[in-house]
Specification:
Helices cover 64% and strands 5% of the residues. Strand 1 and strand 2 form a beta hairpin. Helix 1 runs antiparallel to helix 2 and helix 6 packs across helix 7. The chain has 7 helices and 2 strands. A two-stranded antiparallel ribbon has the order 1-2. 2% of the residues are buried. It is globular and about 60 Å long.
Length: 159
């Protein structure tokens, strides 16, 4: 863990979150390499940019505290697929219930494969160190801890 970097990132993150929550930013200014300046004063655009900045700072802080994604994982098709799912889940219009409605339309073997992935996700989250769980994920972590023993004892056959 890079303590100095984590401290700096934590302070920056807190500062950006305060700006985001208080709505105190009325312009964001960009300086180009050729010396020009451009500003954005649209409130919705500013909130979106601050949201992106907060998300990125959270990612950097997590990396500084716990390390980055191992290269073997980052290059895997599973990671790339998870990133696509992450982008879909980040859309405010994503409806988990409607997503669940689609599952019966999967090929039956793939439907079971999907549940094998969900089982692995639940067990994986349950095994995380409690200190690595963000407060926003505490309820999911606790639920996974309750479900994991049952899931570990239940096999999903390959069909």
């Amino acid at each position: 863990m890079d303590n100095q970097k984590a401290k700096m990132l934590g302070e920056n993150l807190a500062h950006y979150k305060r700006m985001q929550e208080n709505g105190t930013v009325d312009i964001i200014e960009f300086h180009t390499t050729d010396g020009q300046k451009f500003g954005i004063g649209n409130v919705a655009a500013i909130q979106l940019l601050l949201s992106v900045a907060v998300t990125e700072l959270e990612r950097q802080l997590h990396t500084a505290r716990f390390g980055g994604i191992p290269e073997r994982l980052e290059e895997s098709r599973e990671y790339k697929t998870a990133r696509k799912l992450e982008q879909a889940l980040n859309d405010m219009g994503f409806n988990p219930e409607r997503f669940a409605e689609t599952l019966p339309y999967f090929h039956k073997t793939l439907e079971q494969a999907f549940f094998r992935v969900m089982k692995a996700c639940i067990i994986g989250m349950a095994k995380r160190e409690p200190s690595h769980i963000d407060g926003r994920n505490r309820a999911a972590y606790e639920m996974c801890r309750m479900l994991a023993p049952m899931l570990e004892d239940t096999a999903l056959p390959f069909i």
